[in-house]
UniProtKB/TrEMBL annotation:
PANTHER family (UniProt xref): DNA-BINDING DUAL MASTER TRANSCRIPTIONAL REGULATOR RPAA, REGULATOR OF RPOS
Modified residues (4-aspartylphosphate): D59
Name of this chain's protein: Response regulator
UniProt organism field: Rheinheimera baltica
Positions of the Response regulatory domain: 6-126
Pfam families assigned: Response_reg
Coiled-coil portions: none
Amino acid sequence: MQNNGWILYFEDDIATAELIKTSLGKQGYQFYHFTAFPDAGMHTIKETCTEHIALVILDINMPGKSGYEICGLLKQDFLADNVPVMFTSGLMADEDIMQAYAAGADDYLVKPIHLNELQVKVPKLIAQKQEHCDAAEQASTAMKMAFDAMKNSSELGAILRFHEAILQAEDYAALAQLVFEGTRDFELESTLVLVSEQEPVYYRDDMQRSQLELESILAARSRGRLYSWKAYSFFSYDLFTVLIRNMPIDDEERYGILKDQICLLLNGVDARIKSMLVAKSEKDKQQRIATISKVLANLVLEMEQQNTEFSTKLERVINDMETNIAAEITQFNLLETEESGLLSIVNESMVLATTLFEQNIDNERQRKLVMNQLIAKLNN
């Protein structure tokens, strides 16, 4: 005969118990029968009832613990949600029946029990309880799916907002703060290490600092894009690594979803760091150019000042020399032809010196022009 399941039966009246066991046995049900709640309690029941229980039938007036008490213990520490409980009793008062349902009854049969009614009710009660549990589970699953969908939608929205926000980050500290806010939206704790500089740059969401953690993050970079150890997950990219310190390893489904979503969150960070490096390099270059331009401009100004001073001094020296020579020549009583010849030599020397000076001035002008052009190109 087909086995339709096991019934856990509490009945101290042996004659009634045998009658019910025989009747339901014809339908393929088997029994774990107790005439009283065991002295060892639930331990005995768990050791005895090794098969899945399909139904519990409880007499209310039992020796020791009542059916109400036994029902509470079974539901608390033994029965699955889909196992129905049927109370049997000679008590017919409304308060007795209501107390049975309050204790967890799914059905109530008044003694003496009609076996035909029992044979109809038992399979129907088992099926109804299973259908009820299936419906409740489906509703729970639907609610969970809806909640997960809303949660995922919220988290995807957080990812989009994060990618918009990092475009405005002007330095590493601001970028790190955005990473921490992004991971906090997923209820995660994180550490960020940037390797874009000569020395690693370390940030942690709780402002603490751990040298061992830093060394672990740097070591994890050699293990690939994603490396996990216990609740720690390391997400490594070209220019940075993020350590998540509290991944939900006990929830495999959530763990898998989070790994994908954190990858989505961090995918834009590398590009932002690169753009920040380019901007920093450009800023440094502009500062160097400005410094060079300032030095050259000062040099040109100094050259102008030196040339002006030199020209003034040379003109004064030449004028003084002409005056002195003219005064001295008159003392030598030279012939007119001798005086003219000497003056001619002096004039030629002065013209040559002036020419050399003017050539030097022209050369300085050329150098000044070149420097000004260089300054203009640097500034452009």
